[in-house]
Design a protein that fits this description.
Layout: E1 6-23, E2 30-49, E3 54-59, H1 62-71, H2 83-93, H3 101-117, H4 121-124, E4 131-140, H5 150-163, E5 167-171, H6 178-192, E6 197-201, H7 209-221, E7 226-228, H8 238-247, E8 252-254, H9 260-269, E9 275-278, H10 285-298, E10 302-305, H11 310-317, E11 325-330, E12 360-362, H12 375-380, E13 382-388
Parallel strand pairs: 4-5, 4-11, 5-6, 6-7, 7-8, 8-9, 9-10
Antiparallel strand pairs: 1-2, 1-13, 2-3, 4-12
Length: about 400
């Protein structure tokens, strides 16, 4: 059987609204706001081959889409099964940029490969897990009657624990105060007791190293599982995070904001993190993310995957050194947005109540991602498209 050849690549931009959703005062983080509507975009990539085989992926962001314009037309006529070759060619093509566009094409290529071989992506990766433990990862704190106080975060943690979640991660306010953050860290631990893993992710909002240290000491007192991206270096200074690690007992979880296996290894060697972070959309697709997971394993470290989605369930299923699937962004009062459920036509869900009684989510079965996208919905909300051929 001759290998398939890429005939064209279709890129679709869709736009739709999520109710009761807004952004924080800085304009970057999603927060709850009753009666508001937040416009969001989804980017869909379809790799179409000469034999009719199609690889699909819906996700990504505008930066990745922009970078696709540098290379997509060069992939026409290529063998889509040669993902390693394509990965390395694109890495060089995007060497002056952050390489976010690599994941936008690598992900549909993995879906295509699964369909070609009649196997799920997790099977292609050597996956062995069929169910994954999940943690509830909250939306950012708001001042709109949702996650608006330490007590609200604590109450929601109790709710998540009652649903079966084994872990709970807080994303805090844009207009924080250090005393309020410390109070929140301690209140959540008191509310759930000692038998639930807790994580704190300020999402790089804290202004100074000393603020990060003060909040980190509260995490120490409350025995948090990890402390993630605390302050305004934006999570990229290995030197400062090495200093922070030396002053805290709570493990640091870093590297969400650096790109590629080489920079992740540099950060590890510099002593900047206890736990490695990766994302298949950000780090060169499944091809890049599995390299990071294996590199972390070589150093004896765990790797935690950023955000939900079918691609991350398949990825985690094949990784020994990973503890939790991130169910984000959840909230006690908003619709269960997850990855915006409308894009799926098969019942796949990432949402607050998607776990089973043991706090687990299943890994999809079937060729490729094992999910069916709702192309009627995606095209009905289409605002732009482009064909590379």
């Amino acid at each position: 059987m001759s290998a398939p050849v890429i005939q064209e690549i279709e890129l679709i931009s869709s736009q739709f609204s999520i109710p009761d959703m807004d952004v924080d005062t800085a304009g970057y983080s999603l927060v709850y706001k009753k009666g508001s509507k937040k416009s969001v975009k989804a980017f869909s990539v379809r790799v179409i081959c000469n034999d009719g085989l199609v690889g699909e992926y819906v996700g990504g962001d505008a930066v990745g889409v922009a970078q696709m314009n540098k290379f997509a037309d060069r992939l026409i006529g290529k063998n889509p099964l040669q993902r390693e070759l394509i990965y390395n060619d694109l890495k060089r093509c995007l060497r002056k940029f952050d390489k976010m566009g690599m994941g936008m094409i690598d992900l549909p290529l993995w879906d295509l490969a699964g369909k070609y071989y009649g196997a799920s992506v997790s099977e292609l990766l050597g996956g062995y897990r069929t169910h994954l433990p999940a943690y509830a990862s909250t939306m950012s704190g708001d001042r709109n009657g949702g996650l608006s106080s330490p007590e609200a975060f604590a109450d929601f943690a109790v709710q998540c624990k009652s649903l079966g979640y084994r872990g709970y991660k807080l994303h805090v306010w844009d207009d924080y105060s250090i005393p309020e953050l410390v109070k929140t860290v301690l209140a959540v631990r008191k509310a759930v007791g000692d038998d639930m893993h807790l994580m704190l992710d300020p999402a790089c909002k804290l202004e100074t190293f000393m603020e990060a240290l003060e909040v980190g000491r509260a995490c120490d007192e409350a025995n948090y599982f990890w402390y993630e991206d605390p302050y305004r270096d934006t999570g990229i200074s290995s030197f400062s995070h090495k200093m922070l690690r030396e002053k805290l007992k709570t493990p640091l979880c870093q590297t969400e904001h650096i790109r590629g296996v080489e920079e992740h290894v540099n950060f590890i060697v510099a002593g900047g993190t206890d736990i490695v972070r990766t994302d298949a959309e950000y780090d060169g697709g499944i091809t890049g993310a599995i390299k990071i997971a294996h590199a972390a394993e070589g150093f004896g470290l765990d790797v935690e995957i950023h955000g939900p989605g079918p691609m991350h369930r398949h990825l985690m299923a094949a990784i020994r050194n990973s503890n939790y699937y991130e169910m984000s962004l959840v909230h006690p009062k908003t619709p269960e947005i997850g990855r915006c459920q409308e894009i799926y036509a098969c019942g796949y869900r990432d949402s607050l109540t998607s776990i089973d009684a043991d706090g687990m989510v299943p890994v999809p079965t079937g060729p490729g991602w094992g999910v069916k996208y709702d192309w009627d919905f995606i095209r009905a909300h289409q605002v732009d498209s482009k064909i590379y051929k």
